[in-house]
Amino acid sequence: MTIMNILEIINLSVKYDAIQALKDINLVVNQGEIVTLIGANGAGKTTILKSISRLVKPEQGQIIYQGKDTTRCRPDQVVKLGIAHSPEGRRILAKQTVLNNLELGAYIRSDRLRIKADLEYQFTLFPRLAERRHQIAGTLSGGEQQMLAIARALMSRPQLLLLDEPSLGLAPHIVQEIFAIIRQLHQSGVTILLVEQNARLALENSDRGYVLEAGILKMTQKASDLLNDQRLREAYLG
Prior knowledge:
Layout: E1 5-16, E2 19-30, E3 34-38, H1 45-52, E4 60-65, E5 68-69, H2 75-81, E6 83-86, H3 98-104, H4 112-125, H5 127-131, H6 142-154, E7 160-164, H7 172-187, E8 191-195, H8 199-204, E9 208-213, E10 216-222, H9 223-227, H10 230-237
Helix pairs in contact: 3-6
């Protein structure tokens, strides 16, 4: 079976003023994979996701999504092409209801019947959100807000989902719920590029991983091989 890449990053470099955040990053995500970015805080993981979704402007390099160069696309154009970003810190609309947040996640779409069906799908995937659909989002628990952030991203019907720190600050049993949903999304055909503080849990649920150190790509292997790498275990896996 031919493996098709959905995303290819070529020689990507990003600067924040005088700080070199990324240097010559080359990365591939294949159709149907979960790929995890591993690295310490400040290694550049979030910057890679922001570059893909065009929230950050690269200094140089290319981002190729399904054969199309998206390096100079606007963020809304990237969403229309099939990439959704669930950002670190959730960034939900705290003063809007759960339902309003989800509807705004479909802002690029005009297919009302399918939007309605997708809303019901999100409520099936996240039963807690169904119970709280008319609740103000800022009053949700941290775990519920994270579920809302993911569900809102899914409302654009992405083929590639960028997940930034989905378990950050959550209780262990909620983290397990979130990762069960990530596995379910993967099984449904969504390709996922994941940044996650819990490197062990992320790799246990991934196909491959990339290791970043100070904005430089140091290693890429199958997730199972990274889990068994002694140096990586000492540095990131505890």
